[in-house]
DNA sequence: GGACCGTGCTCTCATCTCCC
DNA sequence: GGGAGATGAGAGCACGGTCC
């Protein structure tokens, strides 16, 4: 039988008010009483009832993030690291991070239930779209949220994002420096804002390097491993003279599929084909000592920390120091990039 | 179908106690 | 007696259940 505030106050011979205030650390309760209450709460295993607290405070002490199992967001190591940083920062404020799985790619009904049911105090919108109905819905509702990524018109709401055009530019520059001229590009659907910006960045970087872009070497996929795998098979099916010598993949889930297909075809990364993957591939995902060259976030964990701080400020109705946070990516060399194989 | 109650907690304001 | 600090009473929160 769980101990509630009433039980605890009866045990101590104090009113529920004083016990509540003592546990909340109010200075108008004497330090001796606060300590006595704290010890009794510990001894009796008292845990505040979250539902009652929510009713009293009008607060859920939780932040939500919705993901769609139709994609492999939870298979994305960077995304998981971001979640860890976010959860850690929220936890420090006694706030939970709730992950809600949408049954389809249409996440709006889940958003609606979370907002109208007051299940959370704020939401983090991940993997933003160019035109994002979730952002519109939250703006119309006046519900606090932070977007992990921008939209086509990134104004009027707080966001945290990376310079996606720079991501592709760094990847192309690294491959051009290694001597590549025929570079393929595999991207996520362009309705994702990050994919659109990285795609634009790739085209701009190729233009700047005065290199041709073969439309057959720009392949659209999805945020799934099998899409990266299929894209690789498509590139490998090209006649040898037309086949690119290097590939940039704009996301690490597709990148894993791409690597799997290249290895299955007996290719040596960095020799027969060079590869740069956005967001990077953890070493323990691969085998054979492959270190995949990557363009990465400084650390995904710290990104989650930053988003967590923004969300906490919103929940506490404090002004955001920096409502729009744009971070610069970095190129991390690896043995998946080498000079183009002679033909 | 409407009124009322119960749930567990926090908040505001009133009251009590102590000490100078 | 008055001020400061400690404590308590009661309202109110959202919503489901019960009663008339």
UniProtKB/TrEMBL annotation:
Signal peptide: none
Pfam family of the protein (one): LacI
Annotated keywords: DNA-binding, Transcription, Transcription regulation
A molecular function (GO) term: DNA-binding transcription factor activity
Keyword Transcription recorded: yes
Region (Disordered): 322-343
Xref: Gene3D superfamilies: 3.40.50.2300, lambda repressor-like DNA-binding domains (1.10.260.40)
InterPro entries: HTH_LacI, Lambda_DNA-bd_dom_sf, Peripla_BP/Lac1_sug-bd_dom, Peripla_BP_I
HTH lacI-type domain ranges (all copies): 3-57
Source domain of life: Bacteria
DNA-binding as UniProt keyword: yes
Name of this chain's protein: Transcriptional regulator AglR, LacI family
Organism phylogeny: Bacteria, Pseudomonadati, Pseudomonadota, Betaproteobacteria, Burkholderiales
